[in-house]
Amino acid sequence: MAITAKLDIKGRSGRPYLGTDTEVTVPYIVYTDDPTQGETAIRDSDCLPARGDAFDENAYLAAYQLTLKREDSNPLMWRANITFKTDSMDQKEKDKILFPDPTKRPAEVEWDAVGYQVPAVATVEDYTPPGAGAVVKAGSPVVNSAWDWFDPPAEKTDYHWVCTVTKMIPAAPVWLLDIPGTVNNTDFVIDGLAVPQGYARITGLRIGRRQRENGFNYREMKISIEFRRMREARSPGEEVPTPWILELENVGYNSRSGSTYLAAGADSERILDANDKPVPTPVYLDINGDEAIGLTPTTTTKRHFKIYRTSDFTQLPLE
């Protein structure tokens, strides 16, 4: 099966090539002796300039794009147009030249800092309030002068980094149904950044319709990953959970009556105030579920819950 090509003199523009042109399209006529051959066979036959090949009349122009169309009146004849461009193309255009198969091209990674409102629980830096001599130390609770939380609670705008990875894939992956919403259970690398276990979570996943380019089928996949900072210890040596573990103040209205921590079916009773009335607001509890006397917002115990599934992010096409 022979495939040959020649320059289409009649199809070329009447204006001669100028040495200052940064782009030129050259037409060719391709002949084959097999009417069943398609675009891929023509492209891989080496009868036409390949992507990246220099233009005969200007070595600074490189073959960038090839279009093929079979002649309706002759199934053994094709018309080809090859566009040559200068090296001023961006990286995305260069990748199209280097990787005709879209699924072999590098992933594109974009980063956004997303803001949202969260409770303002503690200070983050030392601060001297106006008119006051005492320095409020970093980590001090945001409470009133009686050490009660404000109602409604104070809020602040916090930020988390979210990256969006765009990658061309040949088909829907096997992990499609399991990965959304999960937290990374292993260390992984994205865009050169090493991410420890438990810091990232898949917050968005989209796989587009099937497309075809250069004879290759592909789909565009977008993955959104949100990153959290490690929690800060309230005191030296305190063990803190990874960012996606739910952490809540250990407060409540009832006491476990001295029963063993988390004992199944343990009785509980309402905590009373100094007037033997049920407490109107939640009080601090110790790890056994009893009222904790003397605890403050900076020393109260915490409850931790694992509420997100995990998965191995190294299986994702992030590069």
Descriptive report:
- Helices cover 4% and strands 38% of the residues.
- It is mainly β and 319 residues long.
- The strands form seven sheets. It has a five-stranded antiparallel sheet with strand order 1-2-5-4-3. A four-stranded antiparallel sheet has the order 6-7-12-11, with no helix packed on it. Strands 8-19 form a two-stranded parallel ribbon.
- The two termini are 39 Å apart.
- It has helices at residues 39-43, 91-98; strands at 3-7, 23-32, 54-55, 58-71, 74-85, 108-119, 155-169, 183-184, 188-190, 193-195, 200-213, 216-227, 246-249, 251-252, 254-255, 269-270, 283-284, 302-305, 310-311.
- The chain has two helices and 19 strands.
Please name the defining characteristics of this protein.
four-stranded antiparallel beta sheet, five-stranded antiparallel beta sheet, single chain, mainly beta, 319 residues, 19 strands
Give the termini distance in whole angstroms. 39 Å
Q: Give the count of helical stretches.
A: 2
Mean pLDDT: 85
Identify the overall geometry. elongated
Task: Point out poorly predicted stretches.
Answer: none
State Rg.
33 Å
Strand percent estimate: 35-45%
Give me the count of strands.
19
Order of helices and strands: EEHEEEHEEEEEEEEEEEEEE
Detail the topology: elements first, then pairings.
Blueprint (H helix, E strand, L loop, with lengths): L2 E5 L15 E10 L6 H5 L10 E2 L2 E14 L2 E12 L5 H8 L9 E12 L35 E15 L13 E2 L3 E3 L2 E3 L4 E14 L2 E12 L18 E4 L1 E2 L1 E2 L13 E2 L12 E2 L17 E4 L4 E2 L8
Parallel strand pairs: 8-19
Antiparallel strand pairs: 1-2, 2-5, 3-4, 4-5, 6-7, 7-12, 9-10, 11-12, 13-18, 14-17, 15-16
